[in-house]
Amino acid sequence: MKYKLLLRFFLAIVLVLGIFFRFTHLEDKVYWYDEAITSLRASGYTQEDVVQHFSKKSIVSVTELQRYQHPDGTRSVIDVAVSLAKEDPQHPPLYYGLLHFWLHSIGSSVALARLLPALLSLLAFPCTYWLCQELFVETGIFADKLPTWLTIGLIAVSPFHVLYSQESRQYSLWTVTTLLSTAALLRAIRLKTRISWVIYTLTLIINLYTFLLAGLVAIAHGLYVMLIYGFRHRKILKGYFVASVLGFIVFLPSAWILIINQSQAKKDLDWTFIFHLKNSELKDIWIQHLGRIFFDLNQEPWDFYVHRVLLVLIVYAFYCLCRQTPISVWLLIILLTGVSTLPLMMPDLIFGGMRSIASRYMIPSFLGVQLAIAYLLGRNLANPSLKPWHQKFWQLLLVILFSGSILSCAINAQATVWYNKGRNGENIAVAKIINQTTHPLLIISDTAVGDILSLSHSLNPNVQILLKPSQTETFKVYLPTVGELKPFSDVFLYRYQTRKVRFKELAKQQNYKFEPIVFRFAKFSTDQPVLWRVIPILKN
């Protein structure tokens, strides 16, 4: 009895810490490209709107740029949907619509924009409770709620889930809707009532309208129903068939927008097909993905070794799950884990590409892994027939696993850049240099709209920015004469693209000298400058 009270107290502390980490330093991390584009969409604008607005202007203020990061009442939620359909058709509109109303009602600072996904992430706890009750307790696998609280604890302090709960994107909501629809499916199967299938239909629709890859979760649900119940339970099969058909019918408008704008979607997702990694590199990344669910210091070699130990634990957890539970339990977790990842992993192995290197695309799989680990811990911690030393081992493992997650969250809370920020990690270093000057001019060259909008969140309002649009999404090289630079105390050149610009020719033509002062933080491009100091060469 004393042991159970201590365990409950420990898990209660873990839950409190998980909530605390979700709301700590929301404004300190770099507001990167994807978040800036999300704010642009939620404000009802497109990247083309930004370029067209500044096409006749040369020097603009940070405040003018920030206009496209805040809803101002001139654009409605219809404009949000139009923006997505035109430039991001692969993203369903649910989260962006919610963010539009949130920013318009509450405020649109970086902290407030990230407050919405942080709050939404809290809904994962009751959804996890519901799913574990249906999966472990209602099926008779466990007599108490120990695995339920263990799963909630694992999600609460998971460095991965905490990281994405602080990003102004739809991924914390997708975590919630995946848990919700899976729990609703199990409940509908158990009760076999019309209202339970209606609830599942609604959760399926919400999941599909949150993120496109929710379709893989729906496929996992369908395979589960067919493999477990098939045609032997016609009432369950009929209920699932009607619910899924209705769900996909309601999702058809979003699917149709994607079909007619597939060229734009392909353009946005080109990075997943163009670049190729060796199979050995892909496997290392996948192991890293799994390890980061529980331990993530973003630092080698600690992460490397710990992640491989965790891989062994995860494999053993799935082994025990399949050996000790009925097929109706382990098959759901296996399908949730495998169906949501194999369509991303196998094409990368066979054809090349990087579809599977984005850990955010694998959220359903990570939830399956956490369910398996929770089962393993719960089964061994609640087993009275184990020898004392065996029980002590599992208790120690529990403490180590949670301690590693808490340590990871504590370190991450102090950082301004983490691995999930795919670009713009240099923004704070760039802004620090520019903001220290009295009357600076920042020249933008070969930079996408999202990159300059991202940087604008870190710049002081007095910074003047010289823009020269070249197409709907980027700004071209434009260098004024030396005489035009005289009103400014300092002049800087910012460019993010990796294309080579002939700086020597430009410098010779315009009498400039370029001094690189900030380099990219990205792992494979640390030798590429992103900020130069422009020094005029005055002739006698």
Helix fraction by DSSP (H/I, runs of at least 4)? 55-70%
Number of strands: 8
Quaternary form:
single chain
The main pleated sheet reads as: 6 strands, mixed
The 3D shape can be described as: globular
Low confidence ranges:
none
Number of helices: 25
Radius of gyration: 26 Å
Q: How are the strands of the largest sheet arranged?
A: 1-4-2-6-8-7
Bin the strand percentage. Answer: 5-15%
How many angstroms does the end-to-end distance come to?
Answer: 89 Å
What does the model show?
With 540 residues, this protein is α/β, with parallel strands linked by helices. Helices cover 61% and strands 7% of the residues. The strands form two sheets. Strands 1-4-2-6-8-7 form a six-stranded mixed beta sheet, sandwiched between helices. Helix 7 (110-122) packs parallel to helix 11. The longest helix is centred in the middle third of the chain and has 27 residues, at 234-260. The N and C termini lie far apart (89 Å). The mean pLDDT is 91.
Q: Which terms would index this structure?
A:
six-stranded mixed β-sheet; 25 helices; two-stranded antiparallel sheet; 7% strand; 540 residues; alpha/beta; globular; 61% helix
